Amino acid sequence: MTALPPARLLFDHGVPRSVDFDDVYHSADGAVAQAETVFLGGNGLPERWQDGGSFQILETGFGLGVNFLVTWHHWQNLGFHLGVRPPMGSDPTLNPVLHFVSFEKHPLTRKDLAQALAPFTQLALLAQQLLAVWPPLVSGYHRLEFDQGQVVLTLILGDIQKTLPQLRMAADAIYLDGFSPDKNPHMWDAPLFHNLARQCLPTTTLASWTVAGHVRRALEAEGFTVSRESGFGQKRERLVALFNKIPAAAFAHMATPARNAVVAHHVNPTRNTRHALVVGAGLAGCLTAEALSRRGWRVDLLDAHSGPAQEASGNPAGILRPMLSQDDNRASRLSRAAFLHAARLLQSLNHTGILQYKLCGVLHLAADAEQEILQRAAIDHQGVAPLYAQFLERSEATACAGIKTEHGGWYFPQAGWVNPISLCQAALRSAGERVHSHWNNPIAGLHREGNHWHATNSESAVLAKAPVVILATGSHVLPQAAHLPLQSIRGQITQLGSDPFAPGTPVLCLSGYVISGLPSGICIGATYDNDTNPNPTLNSEQENLARLKRLLPDLADLGSDPKSGSDPKSNPKNSPIGARVGFRAVSQDRMPIVGGLPTHEGLYTLMGLGSRGLVLGGLCAELIAAQLNGEPLPLEIELAEALSPQRFSKY
Ligand code: SAM
């Protein structure tokens, strides 16, 4: 199920109440004061933040987000979130980050959330920022960043019973905040506490407003020492706990390196070790460099070309759209989280002023009546949120496309096109001096000496060295990654200078795609073949023009005279003005290959993005950065494992 039924709430003397659970979202004695006393106070916050390190909080019910906003507000008050006041004795480049991970099965609509948060005037500035990135109500991970990445909210939409076992983080503090245990028992049951314990360290604290006996007993059984403090408002007592008991019964559920790699790696890497080589400056490499630099890492970015995005990422435009499937399979779930992440990344990089993109919508037309039935069924089955995806019947599709269509199709209103070169450039500009680019530096080899990887050229001269290396080399594979099952697939695009589509036409997909409204006209693509010819061919051009012809059968003379080829003189209006060939690296199972190589310490890959670098690149970069920094993973573990290079290891 992709779509989530929004929360139904009413206001009871000004206090929001859930219709479904028949309970209030917060104490009638004040939501902000409750957050400060019960949740922050119960976890020793903000005092515990004084050491200046990053901090991870897990909350069991996001609701109105008051706890999140109050926590963020106090984090800001410390003053070091924007480098205003580096904490005493801390490394000023450490960039402490507040990670707040929260679960919600019935998220509020943006309108209801705005209404519910309106009375909290002291939180208004933060609430506005939350509302600005509030996601469409579709299940999965939504990684929302604030204050230039110094506050990261990982909002996990779906039933906590299913989503918590998939989480990988190392919680420093836990807020237990479901509706009351008698009305919302699944938020307080033994399996939930069992899975919470897997996210804990011996220093993890926990707080809640309830001291219900079964909650205390279940927490004790999982390894917490539980005590009662004087309560807030009308509650006589509240609960605080520390995960320091680890009895034999709980030990089996404890976080061990095998069970939760994030807990095992929960270290703030020291300044010297936060230095990486990124090999390859396409989308994968540039976005990884940006994600690491945002966390205060130094990056040496190496590429054989004279600038970024010269190979598969170098087309004038590519499509940013998610995939859908009948059964919401792994690829669709990955694509959903990644697409929504990519749209937010564009927003956050827009300040560079060099991004070229347009979220004009994408219409994926069905090729025949059978595909139309399947497309309609996929939307109906999952009840997808209309802001995310819709099925348009033929007449609606015709109106949307501005041309007569044979069938209906999927419409993604928030999708569109992006110039990938501009995205690479924007990522590097935003990263600034922390990324040192080495252009025209082809790497001939990599080897590990002591604690460092050395990248060498063909004369064995060391170009750069660092403790961590990330291979983002597309279809060029270095020996350490040679065992990965990657295939190179050729793609040719065709550009036409004239644009027969009305302004505002969405990107049209029908066995390929047509992007109109580009500064240079339209772009048609892309072929998908095993040819190794790096130059544009007439055959591929004909293939692309046939794609356009399917959408616009009446368009005269699409440079279709094979003898004329790309000669503009033979057909000045509709002749191609440009062609480009790229080679996409595609893995055996079509999923990207993202993560650490088990055989080489400090060696990571971000490869196999295929033709989906624009959609998947940003979230995959975030996954690597999260792994390297011991952060909550931005994806459920099932997906992180489906991407890991370890899936190809022979056992
Ligand atoms: N912490 C919130 C705040 O600061 O505004 C208030 C949380 S409210 C008391 C409890 C929340 O838990 C509700 O938003 C409810 O929809 C959510 N919830 C209830 N059952 C759930 C489940 N099975 N999975 C995830 N969330 C659930």
Short description:
27% of the residues lie in helices and 25% in strands. By secondary structure, it is α/β, with parallel strands linked by helices. It has three domains: 29-267, Vaccinia Virus protein VP39 (Rossmann fold, 3-Layer(aba) Sandwich); 275-312 and 421-477 and 597-648, FAD/NAD(P)-binding domain (3-Layer(bba) Sandwich), CATH 3.50.50.60; 314-322 and 340-420 and 488-587, D-Amino Acid Oxidase, Chain A, domain 2 (2-Layer Sandwich).
How would you describe what is shown here?
It is a single chain. This protein has 651 residues and is α/β, with parallel strands linked by helices. It folds into three domains: 29-267, Vaccinia Virus protein VP39 (Rossmann fold); 275-312 and 421-477 and 597-648, FAD/NAD(P)-binding domain; 314-322 and 340-420 and 488-587, D-Amino Acid Oxidase, Chain A, domain 2 (2-Layer Sandwich). Helices cover 27% and strands 25% of the residues. It has 17 helices and 31 strands. Strands 6-7-5-4-8-9-11-10 form an eight-stranded mixed beta sheet. β8 (171-176), α6 and β9 (200-208) form a beta-alpha-beta unit. α3 (110-117) runs antiparallel to α4, α6 (190-197) packs parallel to α7 (213-222) and α11 (330-349) packs across α16. Residues 7, 25-26, 59, 61-67, 103-106, 159-161, 177-179, 184, 186-187 line the site of S-adenosylmethionine.
Report the count of strand segments.
31
User: What best-fitting shape do the alpha-carbon axes yield?
Assistant: globular
Number of helices: 17
Radius of gyration: 26 Å
CATH architecture of the largest domain: 3-Layer(aba) Sandwich
Which runs of at least 5 residues are low in confidence (pLDDT < 50)?
A: 85-89, 560-571
What assembly state would you assign to the polypeptide chains in this entry? Answer: single chain
Determine the N-to-C terminus distance: 34 Å
Under the CATH scheme, which class of the largest domain? Alpha Beta
CATH superfamily of the largest domain: Vaccinia Virus protein VP39
The major beta sheet can be summarized as: 8 strands, mixed
Spatial order of the strands forming the largest sheet: 6-7-5-4-8-9-11-10
Mean pLDDT: 90
**Helix coverage percent of residues?**
25-40%
